[in-house]
């Protein structure tokens, strides 16, 4: 029996030893760091020889740079989105543009030459290349006009761009170590580093920290391999362009004067005589007239002369209201923008205008970049000719963000909030400019534009809303799946005196609505079988808006439009602009 037990014990012992070895092997394997190195082309997802990996600050960018004839190029859209939005690519005329405060830089595709205004300059590389529908700008050219620096590395080709200049945390390695793709010893190695090498600390975790190496790799390293981090100031000598602006040393009180034909210029004398405190007038003289960049003009020298005699500046308005003219087809072509701008400046000089007021409305999102480029280019000519440039803007909403009020506030002298049309023809009924609507517009504009550059536009008009009961036939034709509305709704704009006469005719007294900051009136018209609803603009509601102008320390006020106001309104306005 004893002899038969020995083989069994030996077998059990053998199995135990095998299991122990296997267990120890697994433990060793589990806790032994991998020595596998990631293929760096894969790290940057480089697939072709001309592709260049790209790191901007502390992020690996999905889009690649290009290496063409030994020069690194970046995609135009990438440059706009990440580095410098002032570069503008005209794909219609194959031109790269960059607007400086007093000059426009232009480059033709494939050219080593570029123009600063009319002065020709030359680089030793092609500044812009095009492949298919994609434009690429040489990174060295970008760097000249952008507060950024870069380093180019080989094996594999990659570029590290730094464009944030502030204090960073830097640390050095206690001993030779490796940077891994992710935190963990089983993550592949990105780069081997020597003791004493410096890395930038991006994120510190409990055990592993994210770092950026001097050669442009991002990865993770164990905390116990790093020395104490210290703050280091990172900076670059770069002179930002200085945008000089015209700033009035008084509160602006501008009134728009709608001019629809040459004879209407003659109404100035009578209309302005009823006002008080007006120091700026904006006649609606200019309009886009075709898709080649031409304008129609109703400018009048006698009008300007008379305004100047009264000490009133003239900021002529240019609009894009001609329905048959596609604004995008004008603004998206450099030659057409140039024609438009040259005509505006020529008119301003000929008629001794003090300013230009741009009122381009209902733009599509695709026109946003071209509109902004138009504003930049127009600002150059205005700045060089001492002409005030003001831009009319909607109350900020997400769908009009492409108007880029922040950039407007840099290049233009004044940004005007059109603090009205809260409700409009075709919308549901309601106020044209409730107090909360106006104040929200101010607050959101001030998030992007300094208060000393903001002018508040207010309405001298309201809308008369008319509810007419639907007929049985109309009701029968309605879609049962839509919300039922028992009336047809229409509206017409009306000035202050028109509304006052209407209310007196019906013997209706409006009621003050504290929340809206307006009077409200409702008329039951029995003969017509309809209901009129009016949210009035009157002295008290106008004063509520002027208080907002003062509270937020804005540059001034603008009124739409001359002739729709009651004469006593000017006494109220005068209190806030003196």
Automatic annotation (TrEMBL):
Residues 215-578 form the GH18 domain. One of its GO terms (biological process) is carbohydrate metabolic process. The keyword Transmembrane helix applies. GO terms for molecular function: chitin binding; hydrolase activity. The keyword Transmembrane applies. InterPro entries: Chitinase_II/V-like_cat (IPR011583), Chitinase_insertion_sf (IPR029070), Cu_amine_oxidase-like_N (IPR012854), GH (IPR017853), Glyco_hydro18_cat (IPR001223), Mao_N_sf (IPR036582). Keywords: Hydrolase, Membrane, Transmembrane, Transmembrane helix. SMART domains: Glyco_18 (SM00636). The chain crosses the membrane at residues 7-28. This is Glycosyl hydrolase family 18. It comes from Anaerosacchariphilus polymeriproducens. The lineage of its organism: Bacteria, Bacillati, Bacillota, Clostridia, Lachnospirales.
């Amino acid at each position: 029996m004893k002899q038969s037990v020995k083989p069994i014990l030996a077998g059990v012992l053998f199995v135990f030893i095998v299991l122990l070895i296997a267990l120890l092997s697994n433990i060793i394997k589990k806790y032994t760091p991998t020595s596998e190195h990631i293929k760096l082309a894969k790290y940057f997802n480089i697939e072709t020889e001309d592709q260049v990996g790209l790191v901007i600050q502390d992020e690996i960018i999905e889009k690649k740079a290009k290496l063409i004839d030994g020069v690194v190029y970046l995609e135009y859209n990438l440059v706009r989105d990440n580095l410098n939005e002032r570069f503008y690519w005209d794909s219609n005329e194959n031109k790269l543009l960059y607007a400086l405060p007093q000059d426009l830089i232009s480059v033709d595709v494939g050219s080593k030459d570029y123009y600063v205004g009319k002065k020709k300059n030359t680089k030793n590389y092609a500044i812009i290349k095009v492949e298919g529908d994609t434009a690429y700008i040489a990174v060295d050219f970008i760097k000249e006009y952008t507060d950024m620096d870069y380093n180019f590395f080989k094996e594999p080709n990659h570029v590290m761009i730094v464009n944030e200049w502030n204090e960073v945390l830097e640390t050095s390695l206690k001993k030779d170590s490796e940077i891994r793709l992710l935190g963990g010893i089983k993550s592949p190695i990105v780069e081997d580093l020597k003791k004493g090498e410096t890395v930038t600390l991006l994120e510190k975790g409990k055990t592993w920290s994210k770092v950026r190496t001097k050669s442009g790799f991002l990865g993770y390293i164990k905390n116990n391999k790093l020395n104490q981090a210290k703050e280091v100031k990172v900076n670059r000598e770069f002179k930002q362009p200085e945008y000089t602006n015209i700033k009035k040393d008084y509160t602006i009180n501008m009134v728009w004067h709608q001019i629809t034909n040459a004879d209407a210029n003659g109404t100035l004398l009578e209309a302005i005589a009823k006002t008080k405190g007006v120091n700026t007038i904006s006649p609606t003289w200019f309009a886009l007239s075709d898709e080649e960049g031409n304008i129609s003009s109703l400018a009048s020298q006698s009008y300007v002369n008379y305004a100047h005699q009264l000490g009133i500046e003239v900021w002529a308005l240019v609009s894009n209201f001609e329905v048959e003219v596609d604004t995008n087809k004008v603004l998206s072509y450099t030659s057409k923008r140039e024609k438009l701008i040259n005509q505006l400046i020529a008119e301003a000089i000929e008629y001794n205008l003090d300013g230009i007021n741009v009122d381009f409305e209902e733009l599509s999102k695709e026109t946003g970049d071209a509109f902004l480029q138009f504003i930049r280019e127009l600002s150059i000519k205005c700045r060089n000719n001492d002409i005030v440039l003001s831009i009319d803007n909607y109350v900020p909403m997400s769908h009009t963000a492409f108007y880029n009020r922040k950039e407007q506030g840099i290049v233009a002298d004044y940004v005007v909030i059109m603090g009205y049309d809260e409700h409009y023809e075709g919308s549901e009924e309601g106020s044209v400019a409730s107090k909360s609507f106006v104040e929200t517009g101010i607050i959101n504009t001030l998030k992007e534009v300094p208060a000393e550059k903001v002018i508040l536009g207010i309405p001298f008009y309201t809308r008369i809303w008319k509810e007419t009961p639907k007929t049985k036939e109309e009701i029968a034709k309605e879609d049962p799946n839509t919300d039922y509305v028992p009336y047809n709704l229409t509206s017409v704009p009306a000035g202050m005196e028109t509304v006052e006469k209407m209310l007196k005719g019906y013997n209706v007294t409006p009621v003050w609505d504290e929340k809206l900051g307006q009077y409200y009136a409702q008329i039951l018209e029995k003969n017509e079988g309809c209901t009129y609803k009016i949210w009035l603009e009157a002295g008290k509601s106008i004063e509520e808006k002027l208080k907002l102008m003062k509270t937020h320390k804005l540059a001034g006020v603008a009124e739409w439009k001359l002739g729709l106001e009651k004469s006593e309104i000017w006494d109220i306005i005068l209190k806030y602009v003196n």
